[in-house]
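[audit] Reproducing an earlier prediction to check determinism. Same input, same settings, fresh worker. If the tokens differ from the archived copy the diff job will pick it up downstream; this log only records the rerun itself.
[audit] input (232 residues):
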Amino acid sequence: MISELVLVRTEDAHLPGDLVVPAKARAVVLFAHGSGSSRHGAGNRTVAAELRTAGFGTLLLDLLTEREERHDLLTAEHRFDIPFLTRRLVGAIDWLDTQPGTRGVPVVLFGASTGAAAALMASTERPGRVLTVVSRGGRPDLVDGALKKVTAPVLLVVGAQDTEGLHLNVEAAQRLMAPHSLQLVPGATRLFVEPGAHGQLATLVRKWCDERTADVRRRGRATTRTPRPTRR
């Protein structure tokens, strides 16, 4: 079991993160957030804890440095800069491949708000490494032109009371060519702050990740199965 505070080195920053990886992890879930959310948030922690009970590793990461976050709160310069956030996230995926406990382990991208847009874009940059993308209250409309390039399965989770977010995600789902599912959390708004919303979210995400890793195992067995001899 690995459990430590890490500095994720990207090409232009050192980003603090919380890494927990069990032995023989099924996948590592990389949580990606821009401005307005943090790796310390209760929702992130709830989902991460649920995933760890199912044998998944987790890396909770802020895509902005503390200085960038302070600047962004005043200017909103970074939070909607999807190419910038995507580069940071791709750097984090590459960093995982340099670490002994996570090298070669499938990566799940979990993004919220604009972090979800970056997660979708990053999956197109590292298609061989990303198992699936989970968007929580995300803004997939911000990568509209790239949605058809996404090949990893996508789970879109939206609060049932988030009318605008639901509209944006329904339209995005219609543009996705990859396998995908749109799930609603009853009673939840955009930030999922309602009682029980985080727990429902965690259950949905765990079930989705369970199914995606099961798909990989089934494909692996299919490709390694010994062909039956042909009768003549």
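[audit] rerun output stored. Observation attached for the diff report: The chain is about 40% helix and 25% strand.
[audit] end
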